[in-house]
C-alpha cells in the first residue's frame, strides 16, 4: 500500500519502491482498499530487499517493526527512517468476515497516506 500511495501522491518528487524481508505475495484485501480510493496496485509485485540490490537509495523507510529490526545494511549516504504502522493481515486474523477485516486495512491505509502526504519534508527532518 505504501508504494502505491507514494506513487500516487508523491510520484512527481519521489521514485518509490517497496520490498520486504520476505515475499508474501500481493494481498487481495490491500488491493481492494486501495482501489476504493482510486489507486490500482494490482500490477505491483511482492519483492524482497535482495530484488532491489542494484538500486541506490537516498532514503529507506521501514514501515513495520520486523523490517526495522532486520533491515539490511545500507551505505552511509542512505538515510534509514523507521515509521511503524500496524500490520493489517495480522490485525485481520480471526475476524468474522471480509468486511470486518477491511476495517483494519482501511485504517492503516489512511495512516500511511497521512504520513506520505508529509513527504518529502518529513524525510529531511529525520
Could you characterize the architecture of this molecule?
The protein is mostly helical and 126 residues long. The chain has one domain (2-121): Rossmann fold. Helix content is 41%, strand content 6%. It contains 6 helices and 2 strands. It has a two-stranded parallel ribbon with strand order 1-2. The mean pLDDT is 88.
At a glance:
The protein is mostly helical and 126 residues long. It has six helices and two strands, in the order H-H-E-H-E-H-H-H.
State the fourth-level CATH superfamily: Response regulator
* DSSP strand count: 2
Q: How much strand?
A: 5-15%
Percentage of helical residues? 40-55%
What class do helices, strands and sheet pairing give? mainly alpha
* Uncertain stretches of 5 or more adjacent residues: none
Strands ordered across the widest β-sheet: 1-2
Question: Any idea of the CATH topology?
Answer: Rossmann fold
- Overall pLDDT score: 88
